[in-house]
Write a structure and sequence with these properties.
Length: 379
């Protein structure tokens, strides 16, 4: 009878109300009713992205949307700068290589975000760069990059900016139009509080000029096909109807709460979690920590697998492990979407109970007390 509380940075928890909305009988997608629902959803997505553009909705993951952005905006006769300091930034390198697209790489140590100054230095060495790709919130290392600063540099140099905002959009301050970002991508299973299965991409007029200037080497993820159908309030291929129904529901909730309130709530949950870790003698992994997901180093003497598995089996708390070279060295805790202070203080209590079982020495209750103080002061 135990409740499962997903604290993984995707998929995140889905509310019972959203699940019920998606349980309504299936309707056909080539109907006026679906088109009306789809149109409202894209308009609400514009609010989340903070853009005048109507975001594209792909049935697929955030990776599908990123692939469409990359092959549409990164042409075979131009050079792309891809910035990475984690597993997801490295994924975009793999896409560029798979499609044989010319590129240079800017790398930083894991746990560090990409800085605007470093991007400016790359332009000095490679003035012919026409697009810049980076991850705003690197989910694998829980590190934040300077989206606003990088976009400013790229625009000054006449290059497009393609942002993986998969664990930032809808959680962190993100202002696509104000910052001059050309393509921004996210997915349904993060801050938008839905199951996996939808990818979203907002595209600027500058980016559309490049996309329309050539034939991208793809079919299903061709942004031009989505744009053409979107003008009719439609989609080019069979969509996930029920996820779109759920999307409209969660986006209405987001609009009612307001983006500013959500940004503040997520920041408070992250700040409280970091304070709790400090009180417990635990260290945060990232040098540039992000507020959407917190990476916590596994302390000496504690077994990562046993810690996480006990939290889930005894207390219904599921946190994520580290990825790649960080597996077994850290856990990752989500602050996106359908998660609040009561959920999070329960997570910290479960961390304390399971750490004590493994013989880790600390003052019981210190973490929950620190979290409560931060949240109380923040409210």
């Amino acid at each position: 009878m135990m409740k499962l509380r997903l604290f993984t940075p995707g998929p995140t928890m889905v509310s019972p109300e959203a699940l019920l909305e998606m349980a309504y009988p299936l309707d056909h997608h080539r109907t006026p009713g679906f088109k009306e629902m789809f149109k409202e959803s894209t308009e609400l997505l514009s609010y989340v992205f903070q853009t005048k553009a109507l975001p594209l909705v792909l049935t697929g993951s955030g990776t599908a949307a990123m692939e469409g952005a990359i092959v549409g905006c990164c042409k075979p006769d131009t050079k792309t700068l891809v910035c990475h300091s984690g597993k997801f930034g490295e994924r975009w390198v793999k896409i560029l290589k798979r499609f044989k697209l010319p590129h240079v790489e800017l790398t930083r140590e894991y746990g560090h975000g990409i800085k605007a100054e470093a991007v400016a230095d790359m332009f000095k060495k490679n003035p012919d760069i026409k697009a810049v790709i980076f991850v705003h919130s690197e989910t694998s290392t829980c590190a934040l990059s300077d989206a606003q600063g990088i976009a400013k540099i790229a625009r000054e140099k006449g290059a497009l900016t393609i942002v993986d905002g998969i664990t930032s959009i809808g959680t962190l301050p993100f202002k696509m139009d104000e910052w001059g970002i050309d393509v921004a991508v996210t997915g349904s299973q993060k801050a938008l509080m839905l199951p996996p299965g939808l990818g979203f991409a907002a595209v600027s007029d500058r980016a559309w000029e490049v996309i329309e200037s050539h034939e991208a080497p793809c079919f299903y993820n061709d942004f031009k096909a989505y744009r053409k159908s979107q003008k009719e309030g439609d989609v080019p291929w069979t969509p996930n109807n029920q996820l779109v129904k759920g999307l409209r529901h969660t986006l209405r909730q987001i609009k009612a709460e307001t983006m500013e309130a959500i940004w503040a709530r997520s920041a408070l949950m992250a700040k409280g979690t970091r304070a709790a870790c400090k009180a417990l003698g635990l260290s945060i992994y990232a040098a540039d920590p992000v507020d959407s997901v917190t990476g916590i180093n596994v302390p000496a003497g504690v077994a990562d697998d046993a810690w996480r598995k006990t939290m889930r089996s005894k207390y219904g708390i599921h946190v994520a492990s580290g990825q790649g070279e960080l597996k077994g060295k850290m856990i990752r805790v989500n602050h996106m979407g359908y998660v609040d202070a009561v959920d999070t203080v329960g997570l910290i209590a479960a961390m304390e109970w399971t750490l004590a079982e493994q013989g880790y020495k600390f003052e019981m209750g210190a973490g929950t007390a620190a979290f409560i103080r931060v949240v109380s002061e923040g409210k």
